[in-house]
Design a protein that fits this description.
single chain, alpha/beta, five-stranded parallel beta sheet, binds adenosine-5'-diphosphate, binds magnesium ion
Amino acid sequence: MELEALFAKMKLDHLAAQLDGLCEQAGKRDLDYKTFLTEALGTEWRGRHLKGTEMRLKQARLPMVKTLEQFDFAFQPSLDRRIVRELAGLSFVERAENVILLGPPGVGKTHLAISLGVKACEAGHRVLYLTFEELLTRLKRAATEQRLTQTLQQLSYPKVLILDEIGYLPLSREEAHLFFRLLGRRYEKAPLILTSNKSFLDWGEIFGDQVLATAILDRLLHHATTLNIKGESYRLKEKRKAGLLGKTSKVEEPVNAVPGE
Ligand code: ADP
Ligand code: MG
């Protein structure tokens, strides 16, 4: 069989595309057969891995790509970087342990959630990002259209589900119940990464009902790492640097800041 046909049959697309370059290099470096084969298969493997990661990143619907390498830990001294580094190792994914990021607006909750999502995509996991509002809209529509079970099933496929911005708006009883059902689906199977600008003490208020809030927290926190970020807003720092705010004036962001601002 011709080489081209073999490549096509074995779906070695990346190797086929780069073969000429590889052969030229091998000639120049006078490689032995085994080293050449290793490099050739390595090229195919890297190409596949990159393509898979790109596909998973697209499916994750992240609002933007942020990485841990871009995160300035020195700006956020209250954040324990050892814990973040440990999370980046992704053992929480295997153990189905939730990650909960709490703190005021602008401290990097979404950034950290996304960067853990990126790591999970790179490691081959399916990831999905939704704002909490989008999640509720999806669940409520499904309930109205009598296909809640199916939607809950779909939301249990992604190995990592990022739910951003819990607590910007209080929930109705029905919404809190829908969320509780989702938690039940994923419990001890697949982790959630949650962000909220409210402390756990205020969750009773968010979920409108202390009993339901306690049940939700119980499920969420049973296996979870919570990072409570207490620092200053990075957005304000950037504005300050640009001279838009006084250097010394301590400006508090409003508690009810617009989500995603
Ligand atoms: P939050 O979700 O807590 O409101 P974000 O994660 O959206 O905050 O952060 C606001 C902006 O500031 C984003 O562009 C984010 O990338 C950036 N940012 C926040 N904290 C840091 C940090 N410590 N290092 C680098 N960029 C940061
Ligand atoms: Mg955010």
